[in-house]
Amino acid sequence: MGFISRIITLFGLVLLAHAGYSAHEHTILYSNTASTASGGTTALPLDIVIEALVSLVLVSAGLVLGAEKLKPISWSEWAGQIEREGGGRNPYRRLEERYGFWDVRAKRKEFADWMKGEVPVPGKE
């Protein structure tokens, strides 16, 4: 998250907290008046509503600006991108490098070579 996006998000959160506090104070202030006692309601003032909406937009913009680059949707594209980069970001690298487990890629290549007839069939040499 960049510095600018953090500042925007922080400013938006401060505005949101202020709008919430103002709405609470407005509700408490007008809860004891005669207009609400007779069943009437008082809506929030327009400036509080606008402040809440602006703070919501600022927080959203700050979070979007600070987000990481999106990953491809397709699993095969994502896996291909990791392979092209050398596998450094591969989350399954520890599982693939464990010793004593069956090497799937080597066995697939061995089977493909056997199907092409490049490797003799074991036992029929």
Structure, described:
63% of the residues lie in helices and 0% in strands. It is mainly alpha-helical and 125 residues long. It has 2 domains: 3-65; 75-116, no CATH class. The N and C termini lie far apart (62 Å).
Number of domains: 2
Residues in helices, as a percent range? 55-70%
Tertiary shape: rod-shaped
The total of beta strands comes to 0
How does the helix and strand content classify structurally? Answer: mainly alpha
Helices and strands, in order, run as HHHHHH
Compute the number of helices: 6
Radius of gyration: 31 Å
Report the mean per-residue pLDDT as an integer. 81
Main β sheet profile: none
The first-to-last residue Cα distance is 62 Å
Oligomer status? single chain
Low-confidence stretches: none
How much strand content do the residues show?
Answer: under 5%
Quick rundown:
This protein has 125 residues and is mostly helical. The protein has helices at 3-30, 34-37, 46-65, 75-84, 93-96, 104-116.
Helices and strands in order:
Layout: H1 3-30, H2 34-37, H3 46-65, H4 75-84, H5 93-96, H6 104-116
